[in-house]
Amino acid sequence: MGVRMTEPGKQLGLGFIGSGRIAQAHLKAAANLPDRVRLVAIAGRRRDRAEAVARQYGIPTVMDDYRQLLRDPAVDAVVITTPNDSHASIACDAAKAGKHILVEKPMALDTHSAEAMVRAAEAAGVTLMVAQSRRFSDAVREMVRRLPEIGEIFRVHVTFLVAFSAPPTDWWRSADQAGGLVILLQGSHSLDSIFWWLGRTPERIFATAARRNSAWEGEDEADILCMFPGGAVASAHLSLSAKPPVLEALLVGTKGHFRLIEKPTGAPFENFCRLEMNGQVLLEGLQSPSPYTNQLREFADAVREGRAPLASGHEVLNVMRMLDAARASVRSGEAVSL
What we know:
Elements: E1 12-17, H1 21-31, E2 37-43, H2 47-57, E3 61-63, H3 66-70, E4 77-80, H4 87-96, E5 100-104, H5 111-124, E6 128-131, H6 138-145, E7 153-163, H7 175-178, H8 182-185, H9 187-198, E8 204-210, E9 221-227, E10 233-239, E11 241-253, E12 256-264, E13 271-277, E14 280-286, H10 291-305, H11 313-332, E15 336-337
Helix pairs in contact: 1-10, 4-5, 5-11, 9-11
């Protein structure tokens, strides 16, 4: 079944499932796009928090159960910002209800669950997009546009080191709900970047992980090495314990290299970005609008045009396979073939 389009020029009616920390980034993005979307409903486990969010953003309807929201004909699409372990079941229910879906990363806890999401969306003819927000900064988009200028890429290093002394949301404490911790939380971004920039999955992955902070059950330190045919390598270095944060990427090709640097400004989900090519600054400044705004614009436009969005569920299955391999490598202590 093909993807169902919306009427040209019609605002996409959004229902939010989840009202916690990451939902704020998506809600602000929706407020930035009144020509494309309108907020019509929100459902959350905590009624008081959902009602506070509804007042803040002028959302007319608050529901206790997301299944009520899925029955609302005013909701054309849902934004899922719930704990990791609930993504797949909610997305499948949304697809069966005929709602287009933007789901927070990681797409699901594992590839098997992610494949079920893709099948449900395809059967219902709805759009399924994963919120790989780091694809949507101006610096990253400019770098991707110019990747051919550095020739064949043979080395990529992604550094994603941040600090959380305590869980910003309760479900981070549970390894079952989070699917571990840092590998799915940050590795989902880093491995998605590696997959997208190189345009293919590796043939082998080796990973190590550890826990420094007893505030949660899962791993908060991890290093992932991806080995590609022909000798190309990519690595992702992840931490929840690094002060100050270090957010960088280095891409080395046969004709030159790119260096991408991001620095949090202190405001939630706001970054200063710098893109260099062979030491020359190509772009520098505060990312505005937010990557979440650019991401939601892509989702709304893809729904309206009846096309696959960037970071579609089908595309991100490749990232889920890489994440599964990384966690399997941690368990076995050996490299895992994809």
